[in-house]
adrenodoxin-NADP(+) reductase
Amino acid sequence: MSKIQNAKVDMYEALPVPFGLVRFGVAPDHPEVKNCQEKFEEVASSPNFTFIGNVSIGTKSDHPDGGTIPLASILRHYNAVLFSYGAAKDRTLGIPGEDLKGVYSAREFVGWYNGLPEHADLAPDLTQGEEAVIIGQGNVALDVARMLLEDVDVLRKSDIAEHAIETLSKSKVKRVHIVGRRGPMQSWSLDFLLSPTTFNTTSPSSHHLASTTFTRTTLSAPFDPKAYALPADPSEPPVTLPSQVAFRSIGYKSEPLPEFAPLGIPFNDRWGVISNDGRGRVQHEERGRDAAMQMGRFPGLYCAGWVKRGPTGVIASTMEDGFATADAMAEDWGNKGVEFLNGEASGDLGGWEAVKRENGLEVGGEKGARVVDWAGWRRIDGAERERGRKVGKEREKFTRTADMLAVVG
Ligand SMILES: Cc1cc2nc3c(=O)[nH]c(=O)nc-3n(C[C@H](O)[C@H](O)[C@H](O)COP(=O)(O)OP(=O)(O)OC[C@H]3O[C@@H](n4cnc5c(N)ncnc54)[C@H](O)[C@@H]3O)c2cc1C
Ligand SMILES: NC(=O)c1ccc[n+]([C@@H]2O[C@H](COP(=O)([O-])OP(=O)(O)OC[C@H]3O[C@@H](n4cnc5c(N)ncnc54)[C@H](OP(=O)(O)O)[C@@H]3O)[C@@H](O)[C@H]2O)c1
């Protein structure tokens, strides 16, 4: 990976804590978490790196003590901006009954057991019966199934949130159907070739899930791993699985930041990605000299991770993808005459200091937001490890932003 000599990197993070899905998505008992956090620590130890936590860019922070900075303000004070804000939503099925009690988004459930403040109050009800349905057969579905079926005493030793241990220990769920619309050649699991059509109650006056109905599907080409699912012969009877709890686990979804449209930053809604050249350079359609439409580079804007290529890939592939974008940025930086934000690359714009002044975010500033720096995160980290030590775990996460900020002081 090439380097931009003496470049300063300011990283803005909406939460007071770093690591994104590595902290709030990856299952608590997976070893990747540790390796990834160690790599992050190494990068953060550079004197040219600044962590700016508890500050949301372009979207309102979801708690009163969080700072919000307009994207336009960021664009004024840097030569280059890289978007890697992941995928904060998930895909929906759009079928009847999706809002019944007992039907959950796997994304929210995963955030809940991993202590994400936004979903700390999810309180999934796992006491209504023994049957659970998970729709989708991706790795997230498998993580959810494992959490539902794992011995709670094994989970207790991981950094899973304490509220999740309490709920899972009272769970009545004994049987989990992981349902896919394609067959064993395209993935693997137990309930194949079924596509959900409705979530059902026992009676019209009930609002709680009782069963899930599926139609049968057939494959466009049975032995092709890329085959897609087609509706089967309509005379085939539907399949109904008893289910008192269901999880929709059909993939995450990125959204554009609200200022993208007014600032002319292109977002491909269909694929849920920032339009880019594949190496992370943000690009938009423009009319060429011959009047034909072609892709034009958006000076100084880059993207990486799930918001660059869609919500797929593991930590290793996401890191590779980040390196590729960094390489493209370094290549542009080294090329004389390439236009960046605010002119050619100079590296001497105001950066965080200017953004802070412009938005009243200095210590005691008018908006009083509590910006968390790397030392602040270290204090939260230390306090979480100490809480964990007392209950025999590596870490007991704070699940409320206010509690994290109380530690920072
Ligand atoms: C449930 C689940 C389990 C997984 N388990 C594994 C595993 O075991 N092993 C593995 O290798 N991979 C795993 N993955 C994949 C891995 O987590 C992803 O590949 C990787 O985290 C994607 O990185 P990202 O940077 O694109 O997004 P994220 O990790 O989501 O990071 C995005 C960051 O941007 C921040 N952000 C969002 N909006 C704003 C804003 N407006 N302003 C400021 N900050 C913002 C978020 O708070 C977050 O910190 C898992 C994924 C999921 C969903
Ligand atoms: N341990 C790990 O390494 C780990 C853990 C968790 C996540 N991850 C990674 O994170 C990424 C995201 O995982 P994910 O599980 O959210 O997504 P995913 O891998 O894309 O899986 C989504 C699943 O939902 C199904 N689906 C989509 N739309 C559907 C619909 N309308 N009706 C029925 N089923 C539908 C898909 O079926 P089709 O195939 O038929 O479209 C697929 O089975 C993946 O790359 C994954 O590998 C890794």
